[in-house]
Amino acid sequence: MNNSFDSSLNGFDYKTIEAIAKYILDRTKHRPKLGIICGSGLGGIAEQLDKSDVFPYESIPNFPKSTVVGHSGCLVIGNLKGMPTVCMKGRFHNYEGYPLWLCAMPVRVMKLLGINTLIVTNAAGAINPSFNVGDLMIIKDHINIPGFAGNNPLRGKNEDQWGTRFPAINRAYNPELIKMVKGCVADLKLTSFVREGVYCMLGGPSFETVAEIRALHVMGADAVGMSTVHEVIYARHCNIKVIGISLITNKCVSDWDSKEEANHEENIAVGKKRAKDMESLVQHVAEKLNTGA
Ligand code: HPA
């Protein structure tokens, strides 16, 4: 397959994405309607899919490889509580050296596989002092810090097949779906540790300084991480509805006298503990989306 990188486009052209989607659709009978991106330590969601077909990223033409511990890389396509679903088990990050458009590119592949709704999950550090390690946060909005400096996945020539040059990103996290997710939280009796808040993306891989955490707090961020926002921008650009859920794996250090340090291994360990609740929630959401309830 030709790798049609076009520098003015700042990404693969529509035809290249079509060819990737065709490669996958030719090798599975499933026709997914829901996409899920599994965050650090949350790959267990993909294991809940029935009758799944698994595509390691290295087997898919033009897919990057995921290089992060805790993110094994494959697309898993099957049924989640009856809902035809494609899961990205492992995602791509800017800090791995991939440009944002390439990190977000699989969202366009999922669009051409047929999805109309995307659930993005991630591990995040708490900035809001009332949040606890192990909380889940329904994302109600985001702050795109790389975007402040012009690093946006949509930078470059726009391809109108995907969407408009200047997409609106307010209401990116679908308000009706947020209500539905809250209903699922209540059904599963998870309310005591589920919050709602603003997710802020930084490029990483270094964690934040104390001064940065204080600045983000003043800006209105409740949690911080190194992913998600570029995927959501790509999804909204091509009119995919978005639900976002963060797992709070650590509290960010906001005190200069503190001896604590953020640590990726610890984040993965916390992820394992609460991952089951995240899995149940995502399953229940998939069931509701499938039945239209
Ligand atoms: N900062 C940035 N990214 C993260 C954190 C954090 O504290 N925790 C998990 N991902």
TrEMBL record:
Biological process according to GO: nucleoside metabolic process
Keywords assigned by UniProt, alphabetized: Glycosyltransferase, Transferase
The reaction(s) this protein catalyses: inosine + phosphate = alpha-D-ribose 1-phosphate + hypoxanthine; guanosine + phosphate = alpha-D-ribose 1-phosphate + guanine; 2'-deoxyinosine + phosphate = 2-deoxy-alpha-D-ribose 1-phosphate + hypoxanthine; 2'-deoxyguanosine + phosphate = 2-deoxy-alpha-D-ribose 1-phosphate + guanine
Pathway stated in the Swiss-Prot or TrEMBL entry: Purine metabolism; purine nucleoside salvage
Protein's UniProt keywords contain Transferase: yes
Top-level taxonomic group: Eukaryota
Record-listed phosphate binding positions: S40, H71, R91, F92, H93, A123, S227
Methyltransferase in keyword set: no
InterPro entries: Nucleoside_phosphorylase_d, Nucleoside_phosphorylase_sf, Pur_Nuc_Pase_Ino/Guo-sp, Purine_phosphorylase
GO MF annotation list: guanosine phosphorylase activity; purine-nucleoside phosphorylase activity
Gene Ontology cellular component list: cytoplasm
Residues that coordinate or bind a purine D-ribonucleoside: E208, N250
Pfam families xrefs: PNP_UDP_1
CDD domains: PNP-EcPNPII_like
EC number, as in UniProt: 2.4.2.1
Residues in Nucleoside phosphorylase domain copies: 33-285
Purpose: The purine nucleoside phosphorylases catalyze the phosphorolytic breakdown of the N-glycosidic bond in the beta-(deoxy)ribonucleoside molecules, with the formation of the corresponding free purine bases and pentose-1-phosphate.
Membership in a protein family: Belongs to the PNP/MTAP phosphorylase family.
Protein name: Purine nucleoside phosphorylase
Species of origin: Leptotrombidium deliense
